């Protein structure tokens, strides 16, 4: 059976970037779902102009938006083989989706993370709190769970059935680390693929504010410690 790929893009006020993201997504993707997370700008109209499917989630939060995208997929008669998560701020390189999904298609790997390695990051594209928090979270996962993850990058691909089995629940900042922790617990096969990363268009809703950075850090660490003591 031929594999099908669906992309989920959470978007809150990304009118200046979402068109660029959608234009660079490879043609082998069957459907792109832009989850409008309460935007007050032209995000929706730009997404529609680029032939994306738009669904709406007014409850603010990255996890809420990702879950809404999954809810939409669940209503479709034909389910995808692979789901890719991608940000709408143009910090990732959507054309690299091909190499993100390759280990799943060619080697039956369950989960692939686009790793934002230093040598491929544009200067200033990650703030110090992001870099440190990312390092700390991955270090803890290595110490506690023996993980080989080095990044919590949002650009990722996962086998759809494996995604469903994770029973994802985080509504805000902990979505990425929850997925990786649950994949470790279930002994999924995983791979990291180095990806390019540039300065986003516009201001980050998380790392661009002190409050966002603090809450993201707290949520990520809380997931790690929750799974440390979970039977």
Based on secondary structure, the structural category is alpha/beta
Main CATH class: Alpha Beta
The count of helical stretches stands at 8
Count structural domains: 1
Strand line-up in the sheet with most strands: 3-2-1-4-6-5-7
Into which percentage range does the β-strand content fall?
Answer: 15-25%
* The CATH superfamily title: Spore Coat Polysaccharide Biosynthesis Protein SpsA, Chain A
The total count of strands amounts to 7
Tell me the radius of gyration: 16 Å
| Distance, first to last CA | 37 Å
CATH topology: Spore Coat Polysaccharide Biosynthesis Protein SpsA, Chain A
CATH architecture: Alpha-Beta Complex
Key terms:
231 residues; 7 strands; alpha/beta; Spore Coat Polysaccharide Biosynthesis Protein SpsA, Chain A; 39% helix; 8 helices
What does this structure look like?
By secondary structure, this protein is of the alpha/beta class. The protein has a single domain, classed as Spore Coat Polysaccharide Biosynthesis Protein SpsA, Chain A. Helices cover 39% and strands 15% of the residues. The protein has eight helices and seven strands, in the order βαβαβαβαβαβααβα. The protein has helices at residues 18-23, 43-49, 62-74, 97-107, 128-145, 160-165, 175-185, 210-228, and strands at 5-11, 31-36, 53-56, 82-85, 111-115, 156-159, 190-194. Strands 3-2-1-4-6-5-7 form a seven-stranded mixed beta sheet, sandwiched between helices. Helix 2 (43-49) links the parallel strand 2 (31-36) and strand 3. Helix 5 (128-145) packs parallel to helix 8 and helix 7 runs parallel beside helix 8. The chain is globular and about 45 Å long. It starts with a strand and ends with a helix. The mean pLDDT is 91.
